Amino acid sequence: MDIHEQEVAAVRFLRHHNFDIFEDLVARTYNFMSDVLRILPNENPDGNAFVASTLIFSRLMQDLRCVHLCALRGYPSAAGTVAASIWELSYEIRFLILNPHNAERWFNHRDIKHTESTHYNRFNEVMKTLFPEDIERKFASDVEWNNYSYLCAFKHGNSMFQQILNIRENGENAEISPNPDLSCFSIESLSRILYHSCNYCILSAKFIANEYCSEDERSHLSIKLEKLQHDLKNCIDAVLPKSAEDI
Length: 247
Hints:
Largest sheet: 2 strands, antiparallel
Radius of gyration: 19 Å
Number of helices: 9
Mean pLDDT: 90
């Protein structure tokens, strides 16, 4: 089979292994983000922060589609790489909204070699704002940074993962291959990657809605949001019953 035929076969295989459930959740997450984008105010409510956060939010929607397309074709490294970007951008949205001065610096930034501030600094500033208590902040920060480290293991080609990925069993032998990876490790990884991608996109949508949408609009969204988060958690628990609590 040529590569296109192998990708088509990978789609069929993964859909047979419960990925049709993830496909539904990705579509619902994307639609929820579209709902939030559609009801945002037409007039700019607070200047730079609103424009910057909605620009990034639109990029998140594209990235979610990219993760889905890569995952469904059996490419965990590519899917994990984009998912790591989703994590980064979800915190960048919160970083910009929580402090208008950050948005001003974001728009004035002109250095292509470096970001306006590091992902770690943005993350820390957001966590300090959201969790004033040290103990609570440390616990939440550890969980979030572990999620990011997991996704970055794909992004940066961590050798622990790289020794497993792109290896295909061929009878009694193993061979290195760039073709779709449908191993047990890959399927578990793709499940986690899709879960994290949807989750951070949902959190970003919720954060923007809480900041810029009216109370009536948030109330309307809350029903769909609660069901979506519930189904996402149930999905990952069903696919990874022994390890979902570590995600």
